[in-house]
Amino acid sequence: MKKNPLLGRDVISMRDFGPAEIRAILDRCRGFENNRKPLLQGKVLANLFFEPSTRTRLSFDSAMKRLGGATIGFSDSISTSISKGESLWDTIRVAEGYCDVMVIRHPAEGSARLAAEATRLPVINGGDGSNQHPTQTLLDLYTLKQRTGRIEGLKVAFVGDLKYGRTVHSLIRSLSHFDARLWLVSPTSLCLPEDFLEDLRDSGTEHHIVDELAAVPDDVDVLYLTRIQKERFVDAIEYERVRNAYQVNPENVARFGAKLTLMHPLPRLNEVHAALDQHPGAAWFDQAHNGVIVRQALLALCLGAA
Amino acid sequence: MKPPNAKMQVSAVRSGTVIDHLGPRTAFKALKILGIAADATVLIGVNLDSSKLGKKDILKIEGRELTEAEMNKVALLSPQATFSVIRDFKVVKKFSPTLPDTVEGLIRCVNPACITQDPRVTGRFLVAAKKPLKLRCYFCERSMRENEIEFL
Ligand SMILES: [Zn+2]
After folding, report:
1. Do B113 and B147 lie in a common domain?
2. ipTM of the complex
3. A110/A132 Cα distance (integer angstroms)
4. Domain closes at, from B77, B95, B113
């Protein structure tokens, strides 16, 4: 049996995993594609959602139940003692007695790391503010591998809001381990933050900062699209202009050919034309479905059951 | 290298620590970082002429020998600071600080959305790069440049 890359560990940040560990985790995910073995029977997952996130919560719920485990939890902090001022530390220490593994979703950045320090149980970060959402990154990498057959040496264009999207930040940083070539397509106001650009320079990752899709070469492997949110703009006219300029539709992706993979973390607004659901490379629903597979693997690995 | 007037400054302390080459206007922050009590005997020189730095601050702390860990903390504030430990008017140790690998407390995270903004949580920072100084919050992972560092 292969070594368990997550035994005795938490899943807090992609920074904690080197390329060999990421490969090992993705390899383990494959085994969960059709898994119905009750590997986690008798185990309890606590879904501690201090802010609502229906999709992430349902995905973890489904993953745990498909492995024969049970779930408890809450989906916002209003109905809990948190609103009475209990510290995160105390909430985690109390929950420790109710479960075998925890998923935490919290608006404060660094909250998942703090939770992991508070308990001896494995903690999985389900999103901490705009910092990290490692299970999203792993499901993206898994989908990339499933679609293109590899994660090394991919040519990937990220399109839209590269400033606020933690999904994009984390995926870009992970891809920099795997000789990716990147095109960063956004309006100047939503450009990838300097910190991440500096990391790309430090790791010697080829990257091109461009402001229109037309600047992306025809032979790119992946277009990773993001949501452009209205609240990021002070000017409503500017928002309209940007969201139309960065919309991806059957006409402007035709030149990339049928081998193109199209990804989007969902939920989507109008950055993706509805007709693109028919594109052979459209992978957004796969991403969502792979989320359950990846989370099954992470839960089983963290609990030493795989 | 000794500044030309080093002897005069050092001789003012009987036993304790002299901190020289502090960046201008950092002396009071250094006292705060070191937790030097308000009733301690301290000579403070602010905005003195320095051939090396243009302007500098100096601290002479009577009756307290700083540990190397304490001196390294001051390096976060003023990396070029130099230290002399004095016993009976004699310099028994000279020390140039090195930055620690991690820093607990001391600093406020620059990220307003960080969990360490909760006063019940003690901050922790990793020294990601020493020159130029770059710290990264252990919790929220935000990095901070020297000019963004705010001491508690
Ligand atoms: Zn922080």
Report:
1. yes
2. 0.92
3. 9
4. B95
